[in-house]
Recover the amino acids of this structure.
């Protein structure tokens, strides 16, 4: 099948991630999209960087051209989709509008551009009949735009509240965890690469306001209204208030909130106390999470990495696959039933449970006397099972037996079963061994 | 615009919810879908119930016909989409295959049917060129199928782990929270309507296995392999193990897990220890959550209600909107940029922050002497602000001032601003008042 031709504008962090993931997962992506998706041309003012990231002629079958003239990409008749990853509202706006005018589909991660000029851009795209994908503009790799535009369409959305700026969430986590001042936590965030040298857009809430402006429009069906958003950042937040909030059972998060009320739409960004027991209150570090309340579905939460090269690339490429599927299949077959094209389904062996490798919890009741533990651990060692943690309960008074609980490192299930069968033959054991599986989920 | 005509098979819990939500949100849904979606005919063996739920001729403009012959719905030339909410693998399978044969698009919540007969059903649908929507089959209202099929297409999925059965999660929450046995917690779940009279499918893990079978196929691109899934329920779980796990820093959840390994695919359902600090470990009661690990995006989590009339209806209707959009618009305009059709966008006032109603956290430093609190609370009362909680710190030795922290009930922001301005004039106050907003997020 003929590849989809992509022109990439900007090869910084997200552009580089997009290039890398699109190449690394080319096969998997083509099996889903129905045809290959190929970056044919990359535009960046820094050609040196572009050369370094794209690795020169060897990548994408030697087809990837580099240029410092982004307008030449937008005007290239061979390009099907323009991916704008330059950012800001200057040249990015001109390029996106020009791409639309030339009939190109556009994918962008540019929240500032959409929050401020989305009405103009979508109007132009509607007239020209091109798609504009912007999953990457809000909450990085979390498919929240798709959830709002397609997944929750049954609902009258009541409100959205999101941790949609990783920099500020990292700073707030540090302030709470270490009792630091805002200034110290900001410095740490800068040291670790979570905050930029000029952190204004993040810490003053402007970035979050761009994102909640976009979510408000698609939740309630109104135009972008960034200029009417209320914006308050975390830069004047004192750690004493984080401490008092904690004593009262609350955490402070920078939330982007939009809510439908009888009198109008609330659209606001500010530090917010939320009950500590809420799942979203426990979103720490640079992670993002968006809570959406619909009248039918109730509250749903979407959580993941909101920034970074590959998480954001994940969203950019999802938009590319959407466009590729649209350009490839009949509408009825746009999304394959099983996500992959029928002819791209593969036979994969399903592992018998005995072959699964995971960790285990083992509980056994044994006589409380010397040598018991030595016998048990010897059998485990014989089966290549190593122990990660153990509790041996002190026996109650007048009791001669005790519970031993062990957590193992990863091992193959049949090893554990073999060890259990042998341990259960020891005369010191009362009853069988309870075995449960464990997962670290990392 | 001509309505989309839907034939609904089965008017039980989810069918009733679908009917109710589709009617209640008819306007909102049509603004998103591009045309009205109307249930024209409902089939159920219990006509009495169907009459009660649909409210007779008055609903959907008096157009809704009732019948006890589901095959007549499938064969009705006026029906565009058949919604199958009967469940099971008997007549439901015949009806779905017959609907496909007649060229109808199908939406179903039937996980058992898809896990066991999905390969046959999708094959038939592919040949006939019809869509089969099944968002409601996994995790109720959470749009996890859309996330996997469309939102995460850039990724090589590494694994999925989900709490995808609300009944068992409710039982496990009760066992942990109250120290109850499985039997007692099950009885409570039955009393509260979270477990059925015959809870076998839920507590033995079969329902979860159906769902993880479906997720595995769409994550890794293989056929449905329900018969190869390893299934272990919670029915033999002892509360002592929940207690020991807790002491070791773990929670026990019934997880559906599928993982890609070098040797093959793991596909398994069993009680699992997971670190208590993981977000998913804190999913309590009948809620569902699915954790997906992709190579680019990292871990993303999707959380919400996994069952119930309206949450499941939310997913059914999202599928209906997907089909309606496909039947209505050019591919480029299938999903409107702002989720609602351009001509359906409305002007909504954005509330000035002074008009927002929320709760507040107030911190002030005051002289530690009689009457201060009376003065402050009098001013708050004058502004119709009532206090929800308060801390007055005991002053340190040799200190004459103390911090007062108050949490207010909901009130309009301008009232709070007015009260603050007056309190700040009190001579007992040192410095200004720190004011933060609070949200309960319920």
């Amino acid at each position: 099948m003929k590849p989809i031709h992509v022109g990439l504008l900007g090869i910084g962090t997200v552009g580089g991630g997009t290039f890398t993931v699109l190449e690394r997962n080319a096969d998997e992506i083509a099996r889903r999209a129905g045809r290959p998706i190929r970056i044919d041309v990359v535009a960046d003012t820094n050609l040196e960087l572009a050369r370094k990231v794209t690795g020169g002629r060897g990548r994408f079958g030697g087809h990837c051209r580099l240029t410092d003239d982004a307008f030449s990409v937008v005007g290239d008749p061979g390009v099907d989709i323009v991916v704008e990853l330059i950012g800001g509202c200057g040249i990015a706006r001109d390029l996106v509008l020009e791409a639309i005018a030339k009939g190109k589909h556009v994918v962008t991660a540019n929240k500032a551009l959409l929050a401020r000029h989305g009405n103009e851009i979508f109007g132009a795209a509607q007239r020209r009949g091109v798609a504009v994908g912007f999953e990457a503009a809000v909450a990085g790799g979390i498919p929240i735009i798709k959830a709002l535009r397609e997944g929750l369409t049954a609902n009258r959305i009541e409100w959205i509240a999101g941790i949609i700026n990783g920099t500020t969430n990292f700073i707030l986590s540090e302030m709470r965890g270490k009792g630091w001042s805002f200034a110290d936590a900001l410095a740490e965030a800068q040291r670790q690469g979570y905050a930029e040298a000029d952190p204004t857009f993040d810490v003053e809430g402007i970035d979050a306001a761009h994102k909640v402006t976009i979510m408000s429009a698609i939740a309630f069906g109104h135009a972008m209204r960034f200029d009417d958003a209320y914006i308050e950042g975390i830069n004047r937040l004192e750690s004493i208030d984080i401490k008092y909030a904690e004593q009262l059972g609350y955490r402070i998060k920078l939330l982007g909130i939009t809510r439908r009320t009888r009198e109008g739409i609330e659209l606001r960004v500010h530090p917010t106390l939320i009950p500590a027991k809420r799942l979203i209150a426990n979103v720490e570090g640079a992670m993002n999470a968006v809570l959406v309340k619909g009248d039918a579905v109730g509250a749903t939460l979407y959580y993941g990495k909101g920034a970074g090269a590959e998480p954001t690339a994940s969203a950019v490429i999802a938009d590319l696959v959407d466009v590729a599927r649209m350009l490839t299949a009949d509408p009825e077959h746009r999304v394959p039933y099983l996500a992959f094209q029928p002819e791209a389904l593969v036979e994969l062996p399903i592992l018998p449970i005995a072959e699964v490798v995971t960790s285990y919890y083992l509980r056994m009741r044994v006589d409380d006397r010397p040598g018991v533990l030595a016998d048990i651990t010897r059998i485990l060692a014989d089966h290549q099972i190593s122990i990660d943690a153990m509790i041996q309960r002190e026996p109650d008074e007048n009791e001669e037996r005790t519970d031993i609980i062990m957590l193992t490192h990863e091992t193959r299930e049949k090893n554990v079963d073999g060890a259990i069968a042998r341990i259960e033959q020891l005369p010191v054991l009362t009853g069988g061994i309870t075995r449960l599986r464990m997962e670290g989920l990392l």
Summary: The mean pLDDT of chain B is 96. Residues 162 and 290 of chain B are 4 Å apart (CA to CA).
